[in-house]
Amino acid sequence: MAILVNKDSKIVVQGITGSEGTFHAQQCVAYGTQVVAGVTPGKGGQKMDEVPVFNTVDEAVKATAANVSLIFVPPPFAADAIMEAVDAGIDLVVCITEGIPTLDMLKVKAFMKGKKARMIGPNCPGIITPDAAKVGIMPGFIHKAGKVGVISRSGTLTYEAVAQLTERGLGQSTCIGIGGDPIIGSQFIDLLALFEEDPDTDAVVMIGEIGGSAEEEAAQFVSDNMTKPVIGFIAGQTAPPGRRMGHAGAIIAGGKGTAAEKMAAMTKAGIYVVKSPADIGETVVKALAR
Amino acid sequence: MKIHEYQAKALLKEAGVLVPNGVPIFDLDQVEAAVNELGGGTVVVKAQIHAGGRGKGGGVKVVNGLDEAKKVAGEIFGMQLVTHQTGAEGKKVQRLLIEEGMDIKKEYYFGIVVDRASECPVIMASTEGGMEIEKVAEETPEKIIKEFIDPALGLRPFQATKIAYGLGFEGKAVRQASALFMNLYKVFETRDCSMAEINPLIETGDGRVLALDAKVDFDDNAFYRHKNIWPELRDLDEEDPLEIEASKFGLNYIKLDGEVGCMVNGAGLAMATMDIIKLSGAEPANFLDVGGSANAESVANAFRIILSDPNVKAVLVNIFGGIVRCDRIANGIIEATKMVDIKVPLVVRLEGTNAEEASKILEESGIEMTVARGLSDAAKKVVAAFK
Fold it and tell me: 10 Å Cβ neighbour count for A28?
């Protein structure tokens, strides 16, 4: 069953005719994902391989019943693309684009209030439910179907964690990169709730990093609501304050958002906190054995 | 991106915010003209560096007349100004702002930032002007007025008025203060700020409300909207030369104080690599994200930048090849080692697509390096390589 995406998910790729959009849409199709439509204004009527291209998301949804959007639109137009998808009735918007101005994202979040759509990202690798659907840019082959959920603010560090799980024979139910920006569509708590409800998930790995307070909120949620084991790692234990560590959201500001604070809150909440990124897989094995 | 106080004040002034008359100085022989332009008398000499706490560090002085102004400007200009934000080595003062002295009746704090938790801009205001807002928040949180702004509607006039009354402004000053708040929000929004702060905001003896200091940070992601203005405002003297060099090649590099240089793809994995180096008993010399492609050219540039730091005693390359195959990355690394002379031990760990094949390519290349498998193996090997 997994969460968010499965074999029945019908994907529309916004920005499908751009080089990144085309390449990754092809990779998603090769993985077995149902990519039913693409959107690029002005290129309606064309095809990307077998996938029909439309001028608007609205047309694409009406013609193909697409319910998930995957966005590769460049930063100046990405916020608008998200709103277009939400307006067209898409259930789940996955925005890969890195570099959207924060004030644009604030407007997107305000626009989404009261609407049913859920957003993942931006500045994220996307979502994968192994052997069912790959809606993102992650390498599919490192994943294996199974019962561990993964939520992460990072890209390659998520792959690292997934590879450690797969290497130990632990498959994944669904892996979600929630994005490295300060303003994102879904937080740890939103997805922890879904994993807690999901009968196909036995444990959850959450990979946070410095900046903001999403991990502290997640810790509170875990302590109040989760029955399944949660294993956590925080990247940036050695990061200096006041510097943005690659991700727009990864910054210790005014002494707040340090790894130490987050790890303390998570430990207090009963999360298995891993100090070394090399120990994520092994710790999941131990947590599940208890 | 950070800018100087005098630049921030120019932006504020353009938007209708009252600021003291002032003249920026780039050379000491400009002091006399500046003081004369301000009418002599009491002026304030302010060091311009990208860090807070300048007053406490001795970088801001009130002086009387030209002679004292020249003397004090001479002392501040060129000094290594140490504040709680600069680190122990301080920052060299290469620009000054000379401003008219103000008759201060009362000081306030007023700032706008993006609040990540509530996902909207938030205004923080306080009667505790001149103090750091973090300190006020910790010690006397009840003295902070918070006002959340609907990002679609912007700051509404009633909110600005509410804050002005909340801070205790009276009579004509209420309207002046609320107008200043509206204008500052306009700057925050139209200039894509991540922060706009006035500390202190002052009311003068003659009832005017002005920004005595100004700190404005821009959201780097919005650069494309401000291409014509931001490059002019950027002060390269305030940045680390290696970081400037790295940015030319699209590399995300941050210099640190340790001895193990690291080259990683992806920001999260780069931070995690720094962390595991520390756990293995050494200190990372830098953060470096080579990005998605990790080809020979970008790897060579990354090597060059990492090795320009004389503290680096060993280098760890940690790449998770996803869409880009590891065998290609391995060949890229071999090419790069031909372009750059690497005199310190090199440990390479490649994971992901075709990792086995890549390790073999590296081992058979004849280039002096240690091939590692797995994160902890890599960290242990790189620490052992120089200790």
Answer: 23
Task: Give ipTM to 2 decimals.
Answer: 0.93
Evaluate whether A55 touches A32 at the Cβ level (below 8 Å): no
What phi, psi does B36 have (nearest 5°)?
-60, -40
**Of B6, B109, B185, B253, catalytic:** B109
Tokens of A235: 């990247």
- Residue of chain A minimizing CA distance to B258: A238
pLDDT band at B139 (very low <50, low <70, confident <90, very high): confident
Residue to mutate among B320, B324, B356, with most A CBs inside 10 A, is B320
Rounded to two decimals, what is the model's pTM? 0.93
pLDDT digits (tens, 9 = 90+) for B197-215: 999 999 999 999 999 999 9
What's the rounded Cα separation, in Å, for the pair B234 and B19?
22
**Residue B211 φ then ψ, to 5°:** -90, 105
Measured from the Cβ of residue B165, the count of other Cβ atoms closer than 10 Å reads 13
For residue A289 the two structure tokens come to 């054995």
Which residues, 6 or more positions from A174, have their beta carbon under 8 angstroms from its beta carbon? Answer: A2, A3, A4, A5, A127, A128, A129, A149, A150, A195, A198, A201
| Alpha helices (H) in chain A, listed in sequence order | 19-31, 57-64, 75-87, 102-112, 156-167, 188-197, 214-225, 259-268, 280-289
- Residue in the structure block whose two tokens are 């009276």: B170
Residue B129 to residue B136: CA distance in whole angstroms: 10
> Quick check: A146 and A130 in contact, CB under 8 A?
yes
Inter-chain CB proximity B267 and A245 less than 8 Å: yes
Structural tokens at position B119: 């996902």
CB contact under 8 A, A207 and B268: yes
* Residue type at B283 in one-letter notation: E
Which residues are B144's β-sheet partners?
A: B126
State how beta strands B346-352 and B370-372 pair.
Answer: parallel
- Show the DSSP H helices in chain B as ranges: 5-14, 31-37, 65-76, 133-139, 157-166, 172-190, 230-233, 241-248, 267-279, 296-307, 326-339, 355-364, 375-386
Q: Confirm if B306 and B284 have CB atoms less than 8 A apart.
A: no
Of the candidates A180, A205, A1, the residue with the CA atom closest to the CA atom of residue A95? A180
Closest by CA position to A13, among listed A115, A102, A85: A85
Question: Residue A255: its chain B contacts at CB < 8 A?
Answer: 134
Which structure tokens are listed for B250?
A: 């699209």
ω into residue A125 within 30 of 0, thus cis?
no
pLDDT tens for B93-102 read 999 999 999 9
pLDDT, one tens digit per residue, over B279-314 is 999 999 999 998 766 677 888 899 999 999 999 999
State how far the Cα of A139 lies from the Cα of B322, in Å rounded to an integer.
5
Q: How far is CA A244 from CA B219, B293, B320, in A?
A: 11, 21, 22
Asked if residue B88 lies in contact with residue B42, where contact means CB atoms within 8 angstroms, the answer is: no
Rg of chain B's alpha carbons, rounded to an integer? 26
What is residue A276's predicted lDDT score, i.e. its pLDDT? Answer: 96
